[in-house]
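Forwarding the complex inputs:
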Amino acid sequence: MYRKQRSKYFMCLLLFVVVLMTQPCSIDHGLKPIHSRISGHVLFRGTAPTTTDQVRVGAAASFPPSQMNEILFSDPIDFRRDSARYELYLPPGDYEVVAVIWKEHNQPWNISDIIGLYGGFFLNDVFIPSFLPVSLEDGDSQLDDIHIPADFNRVNRDAKIRGSVTFFGTWPKNSGMVAVAAFSKKPAPGDFVDYYFSSLYIDYSIPPFSAEGFYQCRVRGNEPVAYIAVLWIDDGFHLDQIRDLGFYEDPLEPGEPGVVIPPANGVLENIDIQIHFDS
Amino acid sequence: MIKHLLILCLAVPAWSRPLNTGFVRGRVTDQENQPLIGANVAVENTLLGSSTDEQGRYFIAGVKPGSLQLRVSYMGYETRLTSTMTLDSGDTLNQDIRLEAAPVLMNPVVVTASKHPQALRSSHQSVSVIPERSLSGRQIHMLQESLIPLPGVHLNEKDISIRGSSGFSFYNIGSRVALMIDGIPVLTPDFGGINWESFPLLDVDHIEVVKGAGSALYGSSAMGGIVNIITRKPEPGDRFSFRAQAGIYDRPHYEEWKWTDRILHYERADLAYTRSAGPVGIRAALTRRVTTGYMENGQAEQWNASGKLNFHKNRLRLDCYAAWMQNREGGFIQWLSQNDPFRVPPGNREDEIHYQTLNLYGLAHWTLSSKWGIRFRISALRSIMGNQLTAYNPGAFKPGLSLGTEIQADWIPHKNHHAVMGAEIRRDLTGSQYFGNHEGLNLAVFLQNRWRISPGLEATLGMRWDTHRILGEKEDHQINPKSGLVAHLGENTSIRASIGSGFRAATVFERYIEADYAGFHIIPNPKLESETSWFADIGFHQRFGRRAFIEICLFESDYRNLIEPVIDFLGTIQFRNTTRARITGCEGSGEAWIGNLLRVYGAVTWILPRDVLLDQDLPYRPRLTVNSGTDLYIGPWRLQAELRYASRVRQVSINPLDPRVPLKLIAFRLERQWRDFIFQFSLNNAFNYHYTQVERRMGEIRNAAFTLIYSGRSDRQPNFSGQPRI
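Prediction (whole assembly, two chains):
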């Protein structure tokens, strides 16, 4: 008798659980799809280099992002056409910069390979790097006319500059990365737009804490390179903490940046740089 | 020659027995006078002991005349210490013992914290025990799921973290928790990782989890804690058992996430057979597991086989164990996009991972006298990972081989002291086109003494010296001390405290890997140094009769030179000694029976896992985890509801902008016992909650499973599943 009664209670409880689970109530299901997005066309100028691996659109809440993984990327877009449609799903928020980034085969993503910016424009066939923010107010916001001009000429590099970098003194303990960058003009200190858009190429191949290293910057031939600098980034890889360690000096005017013009399809050698940490 | 050696081995134990001794014999039964098979009976303060046969009988020879007590333990029953008895020289003492079923785990005998059997409440370190009945009662599909309810333990997919020791690394690389089988380390020699699938599920007798650094006895990798899987012994008589499980996955909650019309499912079957005749016992087990997974490329096929041979004569016990595993599964590194989270990028659709492992060990226990015992083991682990990080290439990895031997002596110089001392040698051979060929050598000696200062106070002091070397590199020497104190403030109350250090030597993978995988370029760092840690904890245990207990523990760990994968903004990964960390926290657990129908249990852990240098949380460590549940017993039915919660992690390493949510999982389980069979049904992730524990890898979606267990001899077992009834 008692056993029967207990079974009855149990069945009631089971029924209660089943009813509870089938009721349409507000249940938290955790992660959900993202519906907010920007979309538009990337308008290419120039021809994609044969070494092109991928081209994607990326957005960052601030510029420069403190780290590369703070850029949200779209799927790869078709770079073989003059104009390619893209969609980039983003969480609601403000995005200071929307850019087109090019990636070479067998090379990592490189922030100096930004080939287009939302808000940028061409002036006499020269890409002028300026940018406009976008804002997605809520989870249903969709901005459909975010068209971005992009210039493949920035990455069509036929010439090379090579040299060595010799380090003297003690490396800072928090060194994360050193890079050698070639610029078309000397960037204004602290102006990250200059650092990341005026750079023609950034080579990250020299490991930190080395006594000496060799670099190679790929640039466009017959065009002046006004400033070749060794850049330093801390071990947190904060892009907004980038600093100049030193630069290639004019042999005739020590202390001043040396301007070089590599030959088309050629290599300019022995552009050596010395870095003195103690000074 | 071999024949002569065998005769010598068998004869020496008999010679070593002093003539002026006596015998103790008797029977161990439950409260219904049914024999308990395999119960442990030990003469207190000696190394002498025995286990019961099919009729529940035990026999202990060579007992020194005088007063003695017996400690009798059996999982699921209250451990009992008999009153003092007197044995005369040459006499046989008959002592039958009746054990009471314990609804909560009552002071079982554990072996991991001190490398010798001791009552749980005498352990100076925090130890959690998962009995086999808890494994089957929770209807687990994979072994690691059994660890989820424990306080202080968190699983990030397959990576185990004890008190915040670990975050996440693909393939469980460089585990800071040592996995052992019967006390023998089984981390893979190249990756230093845990392979949970290496053993058939039915081989598991129980699992002991030691929290806090265990390097003072176990060396490298035990810096966060130890998971020791104790395998079943061959049982008296013969017995066949099986467990079969079939499950089906639901669709994602959001229709737009649906990615296939196929029915996604999982199955596993486990078989085991055991037989003993005289001094020899055998045990064999077989497992087959197949799943489609719940996401693209989530399929897996696995085989396990194992065998155990046991020989027990006089004071000599030999155990030989072999476990083989072959697993082939799809690779899922990151999802295609948050709007397509159950698919992999097209370039990863063919990714497959092949594992093969073979674990072998031989163990000899020789009780020389009531005061001296020797334990000798040889072990070998062969593991091969057949995937190549980039594309299928069976030749990319050579089998990693770890050969080890250890000798340990137990000495009871006085009834209040138990000393353990020993030495271990391990040689690791690894090779891969990704990290080259390397050979490692590890030598260690250890010593520990447990001292009963007074009847209510015990102290432990121990130390281990390790020298670790990868040939061609400089040697690494580590000394790890530990000490602990346990105070029994009455029969039901105890307080314990421990302090100690730990270390983990960098693995071959972490030092030498050079590969491109899923968009990441991984570069070597041969200069990696060992990680080190200090920990201290203090715990309080209170029992309320046989129906309830609570346990609270406060802890702090200090880690130096933590090895973490550092990702620079180019996507290049390198393992570096980057971090100094301090993890402070507390954990509490408890269990209570309300009447005979309702059982409630729970575990709460709160940690503050700080990276001291960066002044932020360590990645992939939730600050708060809660696991709790309730069992309702009505007649032959048992209904269980269980909640698993983990707060949103504050830091991740790869994609910090991705949305993250806390973990909120609810499971319902139903069970009915009928004769030797148990029928089980489970509904996991009942509300279809979508979450990631690691960026861009969706957690398991709602699924339901049916399990059938045939225990073979449940009439002699306390209860095969769930808790024993009062």
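Chain B has two domains: 2-98, 109-436+455-481+493-716.
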